[in-house]
Every structure is written in structure tokens, then in C-alpha cells.
Amino acid sequence: MLDASNINAQDQTDIAIANSGDVAGFERIYLRYKNWTFQLAWRLANRDENIAADVCQEVFTWFYTRFPGFSLTSSMKSFLYPAVRNTVIRQQERKRRYSSVDLPLDIPDTSLPIGETPQDEMRRHLASLLDNLSDTQRHILLMRFVDDMTLAEIASAIEISESSVKTTYYRTLKKLKDSPAIKNIRDLKALILLFL
Amino acid sequence: MDNNNINNFDDIPELSDELQLELKKEFTTDSQLPLDVDRAVLEGARAHFDAFNKRRKSPLIHYLRYAAAIVLVAISAFFVLHNSQTFAPQDVNRDGSVDILDAMTLAIHIRDKGIYDRKWDYNNDNNLSITDVQIVANKAVEINNLDQAAAARLNSQLAMIIN
User: Fold this and answer.
1) Spatial separation of the C-alpha atoms in residues A81 and A40, rounded to whole Å
2) What's the CA angle centered on B101, arms B97 and B106, to 5 degrees?
3) A149, A161, B93, B161: which could form a disulfide with A153 (CB 3.0–4.6 Å)?
4) What is the pLDDT of residues A21-58, one digit of tens each?
5) How far is B70 from chain A (nearest CA, A)?
6) Which residues of A touch B8 (CB under 8 A)?
7) What is the largest CA-CA distance in chain B?
8) CA dihedral A51, A54, A55, A56 (to 10 degrees)
9) Is the preceding omega at residue A68 within 30 degrees of 0, hence cis?
10) How far is CA A137 from the centre of its chain?
11) Tell me, what's the ipTM?
12) What are the φ/ψ torsions at residue A2 (nearest 5 degrees)?
């Protein structure tokens, strides 16, 4: 799974600079990946921006302490992904431990009823589409299309073989293609465009 | 499904652009990483790299550390070797020779009711007594070629010290 060819040349150069003791190398890597890391952390933390920000800080703080002497054996995204995922899990556990348990279990919904817009319907169809996928299929799909990771990067990040990722990916896309929700999404898209 | 086909990337169907766009919209946020996180990470990184560069630019400190380690090892080795120097069992005062002074030292120790020490209990009776002193004295006599009469005088004088 270690494939040096996946490593971005710019990342390699900046790592070498940082390993020589120049903070500029690390700064460039940080600026290049901070938003990607934040988005990933936000998604994995169930859209909690505070946790996502804390995770980013913790991951990059851990990262710079590995210099000098750091060596990247896969792509930067593959390296950061497990670090972000594990930090999110830790942060969520920490938050659960310190959060109040006195809240009533059933909180009445006092929000005003709002009619479902085509966009809401789109979200609903998208959610039902993803609900039909297994956890691994959903993860791989989101890593591929939301986190913009290649299949090789995904394989390296979740530590399974690239052929397993390809198989799962193929099955996922086939499942999506055959899903009736896809047609609904296409119809809705046309509807939304009509309204805009 | 044929796995052989999967290994050929051309056969993997791509997700439509529309759906890719929807996924992106649904699973990304417009929010940006707060500036205080930027500041904390970058300041922390600068401090970390500065500390590393300081250590690297002051090799003297490294050499001093090595020198201190060498001195410590040398001192430890000296004490270990010094303490492991072998003495004759009867060399009570550990001055490198067995003589009348050893017998006297042990006799005085017994007279002053000094603590029991197994290494001076030459007859292994779990007790320090005139017999142990005599063993030391006899060894001194043997080594120093004293005659029997002198040895007898010496033993009686040592017995007087203890009593």
C-alpha cells in the first residue's frame, strides 16, 4: 500500500525543507491542507464546527512535532485521514464526557412548519440514497467525491488493499446507478433549474 | 460481478457530475477554519522549529553533554573497580596486607560490641569471637614467618584486648 508515486512532489519538497529545520516547509503544507482537513473533520464530527476546529489544531500540532525526521510513505491525504478520524473520535468522547446529562430526552420541536422545497427534497433523496449503502461504501464514496481522494489514497488511508477499494467502489456506483433515487434526483435537478 | 473487470479502471462507472456536485454541497461547509486555530498552529510550529534550530546551532551544548556523560561513566567505573579490588579474607582493615593490625582491628571491633559481619566470621559459627581473631593472627604469623612463641604471645595479648 506504500506507494511513493502517490506523493505530491510539492509535498515532498516541503517536507524536505521542514526536515532541514525551516518552518516555511511546514507552513506551506499547513496552508495547502488546512481547509481539506477542516472539511473532513466537520463531516466526520457530524457537522460540528467547534470539534472540527479543535481537531484541526490537534492534528497539525501533532504533525509539526514530528519534524525534523518526518517521512511520508503515502500521499498527504492518506496520512492525514486516519489522524483526523482518530482525533474526531477522541474529541467526541471528550465532549460526551463533559456534556450535561440533565437535558430532557424528548425536546419538543418548536420550529415553524416549513413547506418542503425542491432542495429539501433533493437532500432527502440523497440521504435515502446513502442510507442504502453500507458504512464502507458510504465512506469510500464520500472520500472519493467529497474529499477528492484517489482510490490509491483511500486504500492507504483506511489500510485496505487497493483492489478491495476498487471492488467496493464499483459495487457502490453500480448500486447507485440502479437506485430509483437517482432518477428522482435527476428529475429534481431539472425542476430546480426550472425554478432558478 | 467479475472481479477481473473491476481491476480495469475503464469498466468502473463514474458518478454523474450532478450527483458529485450534490454530494459536495451536502457534505461540505462554507465555514472556514477559525483564524485563532491558524495562529495557534503556526505560532506553535515556529516555536518548535526555533527550539530545534537553537539546539542544532549550539553544538557546544551537545559536546558538553557528551563530555559530562563520559566523566560520569569514568567516575562510576573508578568506584566500581575500586570497590571490586580483591583483598585477602583476613585483611580486616583492607590495607592490602594481612598483619597484626588486622587481628587488632577485629579484636577492638569485638570488644566494642560492633555489629556482626559475616565476612569476619572465619569459623562460620554465626558469632564474632576470639577464635576469629586468632584465625586472622595465625594467618599474619604464617605470612610474616613469626615463630610459635611470638604467635602465642600475640594471641594472649589479643585475648586481653577483647576481655
Assistant:
1) 8
2) 105
3) A149
4) 999 999 999 999 999 999 999 999 999 998 999 999 99
5) 27
6) none
7) 120
8) 130
9) yes
10) 13
11) 0.75
12) -80, 115
